[in-house]
Amino acid sequence: MGDYRAGKAGINAEAQARIHSKYNNDIAHETLEWIKVITGEPANTAGDADNLYEVLKDGTLLCKLVNALQEGSVKKVNQSTMAFKCMENINAFLEAVKKLGVPAQETFQTIDLWEKQNLYSVVVCLQSLGRKAGNFGKPSIGPKEADKNVREFTEEQLKAGQNVISLQYGTNKGQQSGISFGNKRQM
């Protein structure tokens, strides 16, 4: 879909080049392999940006993925290849992954995938979803998420902590006279 637009120039081209430089073929390949384990698709799991775009651009595989993790996450998957129907699929996927626990900062915007603007953020979102897959009894990818480490303190422990002066507040020991900031006033 990005074929109809003029190329970016100047600072925008530099920014786009920086975004594209973050994309990693190996991580994209690992992500597509994981999707294939969960859904049985796609046949081609090459990690290059063009293949990732072709596999995911209509959003049907993304919807199939979240429905495989949790049945009924996306109620209606559009099979049409019309632009707005495909973008609806991508948006439905994004809403579903937020409900499955993917943080909002690790998702992407529909346009990032549809117009191939930021495939790196698409892979980040899928990797984050892959970490959550273990919660649904499916194989997961990437590093294991940390578990909560909730600590309970007694009232006595909390009161004892109030008497400690942190070193961030400085110290009142030593000579403080003669300390001045900046230049001295010239007369």
From TrEMBL:
It comes from the Eukaryota. GO terms for molecular function: actin filament binding. One of its GO terms (biological process) is actin filament organization. SUPFAM superfamilies: Calponin-homology domain, CH-domain (SSF47576). Residues 25-134 form the Calponin-homology (CH) domain. One of its GO terms (cellular component) is actin cytoskeleton. InterPro entries: Calponin-like, CH_dom, CH_dom_sf, SM22_calponin. SMART domains: CH. PANTHER family: CALPONIN, TRANSGELIN. This is Myophilin-like. It comes from Trichoplusia ni (Cabbage looper). The gene is LOC113500474.
